[in-house]
Design a protein that fits this description.
FAD/NAD(P)-binding domain, globular, 10 helices, alpha/beta
Amino acid sequence: MHHRIVIIGGGTAGISVAARLRRAGEEDVAVVEPAGSHYYQPLWTLVGGGVVPLERSRRSEASVMPAGVRWIQDSVAEMDPDARSVTTAGGTRIGYDLLVVCPGVELAWDRIPGLADAMATPYATSNYVAELAPKTFELVRRLRGGAALFTAPSSPIKCPGAPQKAAYLASDHWLRNGSLADVEVTYATGAGGIFGVPEFARVLESVVERYGIAARFGHELVEVDPTAREATFETTTPDGKVRSTLGYDLLHAAPPQRPPAFVRESPLAGAGELGWVPVDRHRLHHATYPEVFALGDVCDAPTSKTGAAIRRQAPVVVANLRAVLAGKEPAARYDGYAACPFTTARGKMLLAEFDYSLAPRPSIPLLDLTRERRDMWLVKRYGLPAFYWQLMLRGIG
């Protein structure tokens, strides 16, 4: 089997690129994707907040696959960029002229002993798993007092603001039902601060203060004891690494994340422990193999791994793919734009938009987007899902 363009991954990035290629007239495009369901994952924050049911975030993969694209419903087992081929788990070898790598990331539960086991108990959850997102609100609703612990790793994860959002929506719920004073809320992260863009960090710091959340920075979750309901953290001090333990009655954890094994074990993987795919940060082609492009969560572009980043990356990748096919140099450039819609309360949202320079990059004129807004909540709740299903996955916008 051979295709002019092969796309690995039928998630946000893969479908967006495939749809744009078809709209541009490219006829020989294949997408390799094993899943039968397609999720709008940003909605899982609201599922975990008790705002929308999980089913609102799911559609069939067949319904979002662009017409005219060949869907190979299988997983990738091996990539051989020297032979310009991909081999699936089912044994099919697929040749390509150009390859787009965007399979997303996998949740690396095994990197934290006890974390996966904790998820099976009635005290721990994660909005990063479809089946666990509804459990988040159940645990929040049940807790009327005790210790609520929200954690995030320092390593790159998709939607890095999601752990904070879970903490804010939970705290807002406890505030509304009068139990917040009886809940000790802690947000512990391996990161060095609340957010990397000062203009938005100031707002988030005020949200943390409003809810009385104890923010612990530089705290890397390294182990969980689900029986004792204890989480162990490691911090770096001038005297070396120090461990401390926090008990919990509710644990919401963002697990470490990494590229899938077939990426990590391939020549396309970059140096480093996790093996993100190295790309030119502007043109998004591979650092070694110019006929390979990567975008979305799996690439090492130094920006947040968000759907908003993919929305700006996809047209750049498509333009550069078509340039290479025409025998030209890829000239389209991605500026690092990403966005994180922080749901700070039920009915309030802070839309943080920025680029590689970590400067604010507001996309809506005449609105002050450096504060929490009710209208931005409506955008998060209704506007963004509609844009995603009706426009972005169709190669528009």
